[in-house]
Every structure is written in structure tokens, then in C-alpha cells.
Amino acid sequence: RTASQFVSYQLIPTNRARDWDYFMIENIHYLAVTNYNDDTHQPISEIFAWDNNASQFVSHQLIPT
Question: 26-42 as b/e, with b when 16 or more CB fall inside 10 Å?
Fold first, then answer.
């Protein structure tokens, strides 16, 4: 964060994301993104895991929702 604004750290691709949840299991940080169903495609939600080497969240698992 600068004096007057936040600085973007990482862009995470979504398809009309509806919900974001952070959780941690066995000291691994996860971010779950629930994508919106627009009745034309079956949305695929995604779980990202923190990659210490890359210093960012990376795709960990895709989940049809």
C-alpha cells in the first residue's frame, strides 16, 4: 500500500467470481474462488495454493460447480 492507494500484487483469472474464501491446511495457504453459473456454461471453480518460490497463488485444483 502506498500513502493513498493499494498496489495490485497478483491478478487471478475468474469467470464472474461470486465468492472468495481463504483457508490454511497444514501450513499451506489456499484461496478458493467460486465462479458464477450463467446457464450457458458449467462454471469451473478453482482452488489456488500459495507457492513460496513464485511468491504467488498458483492453480491447485479445478472443481465443476
Answer: eeeebbbbbbeeeeeee
Enter the C-alpha cell of residue 32: 478458493
**What string of H, E and C letters represents the secondary structure of 4-36?**
CCCCCCCCCCCCCEEEEEEEEECCEEEEEEEEC
Is the CB of residue 45 less than 8 Å from the CB of residue 31?
Answer: no
Q: Are 19 and 34 in contact (CB under 8 A)?
A: yes
What pLDDT, in 10s, does the model give residues 46-61? 999 999 999 999 999 9
Q: What is the pTM of this model?
A: 0.81
